[in-house]
Amino acid sequence: MADRRGRCASMDGRIERASSVSDRDSWLPPSGPAVGSLPSSWAQPEPENIGQPGGPGFVPPPPSGWTPPPKPGLLPLRPLGFGTLLGAPFQAIRRNPAPTFGSGLLVQLAVGLITVAVLVPYFIWLTERMARAAAADIDTIALGGIGTMLLLMLVPLAISVAGTALLQGIMVVEVASATLGERLRLGALWKRGVKRLGRLIGWVLLASLAVLIPALIVVAITIAISLISPVAIVIAVLVAGLLALGLVVLFAWLGTKLSLTPSAIVLEDLTIRAAMKRSWQLTNGHFWRIFGVLILVNAIVNIAAQLVSAPFQLIGPIVMSVMDPTGTGSGLAVYIGIMVVGLALTMVVSAVGTVALSALVAIIYIDQRMRTEGLDIELQRYLEVPVEQRAGLPDPYRRA
């Protein structure tokens, strides 16, 4: 009996252990994929347009800001602001200094050397002749010498007119090509600028005579009134002042309205009359803006020239008086050297100023066409064509 109870207890223990093992195994995960992964039959294919516009995960970009117009070269292809107009002429010189500044310096040197070569020998000859002449003949010789010298002045004056016209044509071509990103050498620049030289010379002569003739008329009227009586001299001075003031206002108005004539002659191949009409049309409604830019750049150039030349004009006499207080002429060489250095620096500044003013006129012309005719759009279309395919395209500055 005791043996049967022992066997029953042993069997109950095995059943209990088997039951505990069965309960423990029921809590174990089934064999297969690792925890945290899905069976292959449950996997879904990823969409091909994930992260793309319209697909899952697409995040729209932030709104873009204003994109400035392209600037392939000297000028941005948009209507220019006042500050850009002031700085662009000097930027044109800095961008391509050899042809631009070199052209201005060559013109200045040519005018200066021809003036010296024509007038200095004649002045020396006239001085020697007056020294050998009798006292009764000195006044006659001096009067004839002054008349001859005035005639000789026509030679450097003609060279100056031609040089100014050539420089205007050169700078118009330079600004137009630099706006398109081109950089021309001196020879190519002169070759293009000389094509319209005849009409440019005619324009410079016409503008010079338009200033000279009224000024001579005012002088003649003043002299005629002053010869009536001593009291009339005061009246003559007042009349001359009023007429001069009126001429200044008239010249400022006409000069601004016709300032774009050289650019129209060069870039649109117009006659002088048609170019004057074109300039008048382009400046309508923008007179004060153009006038302000022209006045400011002229003032900058003139002030710079005065700042360069004034110290030498002051230092020269002081050095002369210190080195040669008794007037024996021992300091003359130093004085001449100072004056030569001052003249050279003044010539350099004048060359920069002349080039900058010529470039300014071309820049204003392009700006006015971008404002009134959409030239910036035409230039952008032209620049979209590859360089090697532009040979057959029409000139973007030429109107159809």
UniProtKB/TrEMBL annotation:
Residues of the signal peptide: none
Keywords from the named record: Membrane, Transmembrane, Transmembrane helix
Residue stretches spanning the membrane: 105-126, 138-159, 201-225, 231-254, 287-312, 332-365
Keyword Ligase tagged: no
Pfam families: DUF7847
Domain DUF7847: 92-357
Classification via InterPro entries: DUF7847
Biased composition (Pro residues): 58-72
The organism's place on the tree of life at top rank: Bacteria
Record's compositionally biased regions (Basic and acidic residues): 13-26
Annotated region (Disordered), positions in chain: 1-72
Protein name according to UniProt: DUF7847 domain-containing protein
